[in-house]
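We treat protein structure as text, and this decision shapes the records that our systems exchange. The remainder of this section carries one protein's record, kept here as part of the documentation:
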Amino acid sequence: MGFWFGRPLVPFLKASNIEASIEQADQLISSLNASDSLGDKLAAAALAHSGEGVAFDRDYYKIGYPGGDIPSNKGMAADVLVRCYRKLGLDLQVLVHEDMAENFRVYPQLWDATGPDANIDHRRVPNLQRFLERKGETLEPSRSAADYKAGDIVIWTLANAETHIGIVVPGPGDRANEAWVVHNMGSGVKWENVLFDYPLQRHFRFPAPDAAK
C-alpha cells in the first residue's frame, strides 16, 4: 500500500486502482521544497524518506548525542519524525531531552525511568506527544481533510491502545489536494491514504507558527 522509490510504477491502493510514478513523487517533493513553508519542507522530507528501505525495529539502542540515530535501515514510528525534522535542522533528540531534563515529571511515567535518557526518550510516541503539547501548536483532530496541512503531525490511538504518529503529506498526482500520511506502522515507512483509518487523538504543528523563524 505504501510508495517506494526505485520502481517505475507502484500501486498505492489496489481497491482504488491508484498508481503513482517516480516522476510524480519527484515533482511533488520539488514543489514542496520550493515553498517557504516549513510544513511543506517537512512533508517533502517525509515523502523522500518513504522511499528509503526501513525495517520496523522498536529495540533499545545506545546512540550518540546530539544527532544520534539507530541504523538507518531500521526504525519505528517516532523515528520518521526524528529523521525528517533533522533534514530541516531541528533535532528532536536534543529538544526532547533538554525539555525532559528540566521537566521530567510532566512527561509520561511509563517505563520505570528515574530520569531522562537521550538514547530513547525522543523515540517514544507518548514523549513526543507531550513535547508537542508543550512546544507546538495544538489543533482539533477533526475528520475533515481541509483542516490538515502538509507537515502537520497526527497521533492516532490503535486498536491495541498504543499510540501511533505520522506526518501529513499531499496525495499523488491529481489527488495532491488530499491529506495522506507518511508513517511506519510495522511494515516500513509508507506514503498512504490512511489519515482517517484510525481514531485521531491529537493534531499538531511544530514549530508553532508564531515560533517559526
About this structure: The two ends are 36 Å apart (CA to CA).
